[in-house]
TrEMBL record:
TM helices/strands, residue ranges: 6-26, 38-55, 67-90, 111-133, 139-156, 168-190, 224-244, 278-301
Alphabetical keyword list: Membrane, Transmembrane, Transmembrane helix
The keyword Membrane appears for this protein: yes
GO cellular component: plasma membrane
UniProt organism field: Acinetobacter nosocomialis 28F
Protein name (database record): Lysine exporter LysO family protein
Classification of source organism: Bacteria, Pseudomonadati, Pseudomonadota, Gammaproteobacteria, Moraxellales
Signal peptide bounds: none
InterPro entries: LysO (IPR005642)
Single GO molecular function: L-lysine efflux transmembrane transporter activity
Amino acid sequence: MQSVSLIIQIFIVIAFGYFLGPKLSLNIRQFIFKILPYFSYILLTSVALELTLALDQINNPSTILPPALLIAFTTSFGSFFTCLIAYAIFDKESVKGKISLQLFINALKNIAKAFLALTVGIILGILFTRLNIHISFNSWYLLLVFIFLIGIELAFTHFNRTWLSWKILIVPLAAFIGSCIAGFLNYFLLGNHFTLNEMLALAQGYGWYSMSGILFTQLHSAELGGIALLTDLFREIVAILLMYTMGWRFPRPAISSAGATSMDVTLAMVKQSCGTHYVPHAMMSGLLLSLLAPLLITVFLNF
């Protein structure tokens, strides 16, 4: 029920922005379009801060960091390359970004800004920890503000039939298949410590750490809950880095690697790195994976 509630909130907010947008004055719209790109860096800082605070709250994080990092990298890259191959087979006419010097320079600038935002978040988290400052940080409301602004921008975006194409479904399907392949690979690498169903279940979080950490703790153990939390936090960060480095050239695979987060946190990066044209791909993929993630985790854990 929590996943349904969050999804409903997202669609209400984006719909409100979409229908309100045309009624705003030109000056307000221009101001919104000007500040919108900066929200992606604010969200990056919040993600890094949450990660740092989460590490401080987990018992013996050094024992769960290696598997979490491994699962995060393999599932993110598994989704990316599965989607890349799928579109090469089923949609050879799919649009790829053009390589140019200016685009390459812009990509490097975005990467540098992204790393700076992540660094700021980590430093803030370390300072809060060292100074023994306990805060209950939740970036959800900040995220809703950003999605509201995205809705306003979508009101002035030209729609076309390709946004409703079945080929969009390749993005979330590739995320599922790529994550399952990564789950099998991780089982062979970590089989001495985890069962196959545990590895497959850990691959189904799709970056939604606030859900997966709680669900694994309730259904299995606190240890697996901690691994799930860090896995999906790292998976979100890996997806963000892929978005900035490869999104301008391979937008759909980058969105696939973002998993469930393409509908919320990484939506800012989709718009910035892949272009507004791919926002519907991100929304559809994120919606389906957000709905499926709790179900798939439960099914694999009880398989």
